[in-house]
Amino acid sequence: MPTASRTYWLTTPCRIQRKDQSLRIERIGGAPVHIPIIDVRDIVACESVDLNTAVISLLNRHHINVHFLSHYGDYAGSLLTAETSTSGQTVIAQARLAGDTAASLEIARAIVISAAANVRRVIDRKLLTRPMERLESSAAEAATREELMGAEGTFRRSAWAVMDTRLPDWLKLDGRSRRPPRNAGNAFISYVNGIVYARLLSAIRLTPLHSGVAFLHSTMERQRHSLVLDLSEVFKPLFAERLLLRLAGRGQLKPAHFDLDVNQAMLSESGRRLVVQTVRDELAVTVHHRGLGRNVAYDELLYLEALQLTRRCLEGAPYKPFKIWW
């Protein structure tokens, strides 16, 4: 992804105003912050934000997207610029590939297996060996996307049960719950997954792909970007489960980082700041890419994944979804 500009994360309620060719961020109890528009790649708003048409016009002119997350970390929507890198030729090829049942299922199967391999890698390779073998067998026999997702769900339940053995009682998942999350562990995962979704949407919009044409998730999903859901599967373990285990193991996550109620939980203000800063730092971590022969940031891995799928659509090149190799 482009490195000349960067992502800005808004973790407190604020108002964005335009000041010439800059954004003026006003926060309660804090001094205004001026940001040159050319320094902004995109914005992730983790709290309520007020902005007017002058700001929207400036953002649109410079192709800057704003992604909004709810209190629970769910992706709430985006203010997307009018122009994208989407190309008609690529979209036609992408739609043709998605409409080819055998080819589409092959891509979906690869996504499911790679996502599970990443989950196994970050949680416990030994204890998840048998569930992984069962998934691979079920995936090979699956004749529909629904069967694939059912097999994936069975594996995920085994993985979450194993992960609970590595978490303190107050952070255990006790099964995956969403909208709202039922407990602190689920609130953490939902919030990080929302960030991954937003980052992938920005990455895909830098490629010729259409974010609404998918292979694993239904292309008929009207309120979500289905292709983002597809690619999110392989990256969520790198950030959500992995960081939850890391922060819990280091004792960095505290009950005070969550607001708990009956059968629902959410990150507190301090919790959101901790999680956002942790994910920001992680996105900047670099790893040596064996294919490119150079170091790339985790954030760039999202973009490279979308490019790899672009080549599958246009050139028929094999698509091998991201797997953690380090």
Radius of gyration: 20 Å
Query: What kind of sheet is the major sheet?
Result: 4 strands, mixed
Distance between the termini: 21 Å
The largest sheet has its strands arranged as 1-5-7-8
In DSSP terms, counting alpha (H) and pi (I) runs of 4 or more, how many helices? 9
Q: In one word, what is the shape?
A: globular
Helix content: 40-55%
**Structural category:** alpha/beta
| Poorly predicted ranges | none
Rounded mean pLDDT score: 91
Strand proportion, as a percent range, falls in 15-25%
- Give me the count of strands: 12
**What series of H and E elements makes up the topology?**
EEEEEEHEEHHHHHHEEHEEH
Overview of this protein structure:
The model has no long low-confidence stretch (mean pLDDT 91). This protein has helices at 53-61, 88-99, 101-123, 129-141, 145-164, 184-204, 226-249, 269-284, 298-315, and strands at 6-10, 14-19, 22-27, 33-36, 40-45, 49-51, 65-69, 75-79, 258-261, 264-267, 286-289, 294-297. A four-stranded mixed β-sheet has the order 1-5-7-8. It has a four-stranded mixed β-sheet with strand order 4-3-2-6. The chain has a two-stranded antiparallel ribbon with strand order 9-10. 48% of the residues lie in helices and 17% in strands. It has nine helices and twelve strands. It starts with 5 loop residues before the first strand and ends in an 11-residue tail after the last helix. Helix 6 packs across helix 9. A hairpin with a 2-residue loop joins strand 2 (14-19) and strand 3. The protein has 326 residues and is an alpha/beta fold. It is globular and about 60 Å long.
